[in-house]
Amino acid sequence: MKLKKSAVALCLALSFALPLTGQTTATTRHTPSTAHRSATTAGNPADHPPGVPPVHGLPKPLYSLRYIDILVGEGALAEPQKFYTVRYTGWTTDGKKFDSSDDHPGKEPYTFPYGAHRVIIGWDTGFEGMRVGGKRRLFVPYELAYGELGRPPIPAKADLIFDIELVAQSDAPPTPPTAPATPTPPATAKPSTTPASPTTPSGQPVDPTKPTTVPSSPGTTPNPSRP
């Protein structure tokens, strides 16, 4: 009897255990799929704002601008739509310098309107967050520089490195310095080209509209008989 009761109890235990085991296995198999779908759909909440239709997948970076702040400036925070005056040096990634403001005549810094597409995209965005007096190293991918074709001496698809310094910013381009005035040489007396006026023996100037009276020679007497 004891053996029969044990056998019946064992059968009952197995009959209850098998469905539970199958259910657990199914749940375990389903969990990773749910987690993956949740991660794929959720991602960064900023990528799925309300009102924008959701899509599946994770965003992938295409290219990015990187930088290192060498020196944090103590001046005003860089603002958009200003004229920036900067000093800079640029290299290709093999270490060749291709341009520098220090190589310009007089080592003059360069001024440009920030955000006006007058420079490469890496420069039009690379000063954000800087302060006047700050220095930064930019690592610019070729997509934000001179593109697939390059521009001599920049080769095609060239990533660039720039050291930049924000010297000043202003609402208008700075006025170029006025060249010093050329000193005027001292005036020198020039010889007169007008002939001196003839004078009479008495020393008085001669009036060309009046006849000249010549005095009689000493010791002679005018002849009253002549008209």
Our count of helices gives 2
- What integer value in Å does the Rg equal? 49 Å
Number of separate strands: 6
Estimate the global geometry from the Cα principal axes.
elongated
Helix content, binned percent? 10-25%
- Can you write the helix and strand succession as a string? HEEEEHEE
Catalogue the unreliable spans: 10-41, 205-227
CATH architecture of the domain at 73-170: Roll
Largest sheet: 6 strands, antiparallel
How large is the share of residues in beta strands? Answer: 15-25%
CATH fold annotation of the domain at 73-170? Chitinase A, domain 3
On the 0 to 100 scale, the average pLDDT is 75
* Distance linking N and C termini: 199 Å
Query: What is the CATH top level name of the domain at 73-170?
Result: Alpha Beta
What structural category arises from helix and sheet content? Answer: alpha+beta
Outline of the structure:
The chain has 227 residues and is of the alpha+beta class.
How does this model look, in words?
This protein has 227 residues and is an alpha+beta fold. The protein has a domain at 73-170: Chitinase A, domain 3. The chain has 2 helices and 6 strands. Strands 1, 2, 3, 4, 5 and 6 form a 6-stranded antiparallel beta sheet that branches. The longest helix has 41 residues, at 2-42. The model is unreliable at 10-41 and 205-227 (pLDDT under 50).
Notable traits:
Chitinase A, domain 3, alpha+beta, six-stranded antiparallel β-sheet, 227 residues, disordered C terminus, 18% strand, 21% helix
